[in-house]
Amino acid sequence: MKTSPTIIRGMLVAAMMVLQGAGPANALDVGQKAPDFTLTAAGNKLVTLADLLGKGPVVIYTFVDAFGAA
User: Are 62 and 20 in contact (CB under 8 A)?
Assistant: First the structure.
């Protein structure tokens, strides 16, 4: 089954929101693998990191504070 770009974008946004709440104590070291997590995609379908990794490489990109703190 092919995953639509909208679902992928939604999962990435949700992952960014989760990762944004992670403080330095929870941060991963460079090269360390991310723990498995589950997100709810469109249609209330549960998607796990393990499911996505089974289909190929996964990149979780976090873009924080584009315009700087006011």
Answer: yes
